[in-house]
Amino acid sequence: MGEAPAPSGPAADVGRWFSTGSRSADTGADPGDHVFRTHARDHPWGPADPSLYGRLSTPEEVLGALDVLRGGPVTVLTGAGLSTESGLPDYRGPRAVPRTPMTYQEFVRSDLSRRRYWARSTVGWTQFGAARPNRGHRLLAALAAPLEITGVITQNVDRLHEEAGSEPVVDLHGRLDVVRCLDCDATISRDSLHSRLLGMNPDIAARLEDLARDAAQAPDGDAEVDRTSRFRYPPCALCGGMLKPDVVFFGESARREMVADAFALLERSRALLVLGSSLTVMSGLRFARQALADGKPVVIVNDGPTRADDRATVRVHGRVADVLGAWALELGVRDHPGRHRSR
């Protein structure tokens, strides 16, 4: 299997299902606005102090935040906290699982790292790929009209906003359901690659259900898939190049067009609403900072601390779906029916 040259292009090892990095990896990233450069060693992805979570804003505070957003237009920025009720783990909550994400440099430089990644993510895809939008996703889609939402910028890679009916959606960190060739830029679906991976690794395929069940309970989601040096993965069917999930790894740059689209949404808005993000990495924090610099109100809804709490115009504590539900009740709207997923 040929080695593809290390490219300069885009794509996050996301959630405990993809805890595939080594603990000694270095991002090797140059500083820059577009680089997803906060490393797990600096901001560990694991359980936080439980005392920082569970605080609830009063009903008056919740409706006060809605008053700030009335009269739109509003841009929404979302993080992992919006997808936890869909069964996808967050990164830093009280029940988060300690993990070390694989860096872009590890993935492109090492065949063994790619074997490790694809072996463990093959097991993880069983649950990740089955996730469906939760009440929070549907409520956000339903609130699009009354709040005059210009669009959703999401740090998540699960495509649940689109499936719930939100539009437009800027997938800032890419999509995990797409795989891209780093040589010819061709894409294939993750489901298609999943079938190929199982066919090339019948021992994993035979134990997939048990491995996936163990992975859901293991500290890092890897279960018994530690011996991965013999795992086989295919090259690009078109050019023989290196395949990689179309998501932004640590040490890699987000696609410039995605960043530009996100800032364009913010520019057309009067306010920014942050939902379910700790804003720990600059990739998301920069939008809150830009909105504040432009004199736009920033409303943050999250269960747990965020990196912009001290500067937020209004800070609402609680579960995102509960807060959105209160707003929907006040505005007289119902959950969005969502869209049928085509697979």
Could you outline the blueprint of secondary structure elements for this entry?
Layout: H1 59-69, E1 74-78, H2 104-109, H3 111-128, H4 135-142, E2 149-154, H5 160-164, E3 169-171, E4 174-181, E5 187-189, H6 190-200, H7 202-206, H8 208-215, E6 243-247, H9 256-267, E7 271-275, H10 282-293, E8 298-302, E9 314-317, H11 320-331
Parallel strand pairs: 1-2, 1-7, 2-3, 7-8, 8-9
Antiparallel strand pairs: 4-5, 4-6
Task: For the structure shown, list the relevant keywords.
single chain; 343 residues; alpha/beta; six-stranded parallel beta sheet; three-stranded antiparallel beta sheet; 11 helices; 31% helix
Structure description:
The protein has 343 residues and is α/β, with parallel strands linked by helices. Helix content is 31%, strand content 13%. It has 11 helices and 9 strands. The chain has helices at residues 59-69, 104-109, 111-128, 135-142, 160-164, 190-200, 202-206, 208-215, 256-267, 282-293, 320-331, and strands at residues 74-78, 149-154, 169-171, 174-181, 187-189, 243-247, 271-275, 298-302, 314-317. It is elongated. The chain starts with 58 loop residues before the first helix and ends in a 12-residue tail after the last helix. The model is unreliable at 1-45 and 217-224 (pLDDT under 50).
